[in-house]
């Protein structure tokens, strides 16, 4: 069926490079540093963009997440907090 455009299923997961991981952290937090190492590794291997936000610079993030940092969001939804499991993050980004 040459010349036909590919069919994409509705509801299929976005490609890893179309995802976004957000690390919400604070300065001097050793768990945040550990989380960043895992995020850098997984996102680097999968080509997933990531960002970090400082909870001390954002009142809304502070109010929502202060007792949970570090917090990891995938596409804006909370994925995990305190400790980041490499396999679980990888699965969330590729499923």
UniProtKB/TrEMBL annotation:
It comes from the Bacteria. Pfam families: Glrx-like. InterPro entries: Glutaredoxin-like (IPR008554), Glutaredoxin-like_YDR286C (IPR052565), Thioredoxin-like_sf (IPR036249). Gene3D superfamilies: Glutaredoxin (3.40.30.10). This is Redoxin. It comes from Streptomyces glaucescens.
């Amino acid at each position: 069926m040459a010349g036909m455009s590919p069919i994409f299923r509705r509801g299929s997961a976005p490609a890893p490079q179309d995802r976004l991981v957000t690390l919400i952290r604070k300065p001097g937090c050793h768990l945040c540093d550990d989380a960043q190492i895992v995020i850098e590794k997984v996102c680097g291997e999968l080509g997933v963009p990531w960002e970090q936000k400082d909870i001390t610079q954002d009142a809304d993030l502070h109010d929502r997440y202060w007792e949970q940092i570090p917090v990891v969001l995938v596409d804006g939804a909370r994925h995990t907090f305190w400790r980041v499991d490499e396999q679980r993050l990888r699965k969330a980004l590729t499923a």
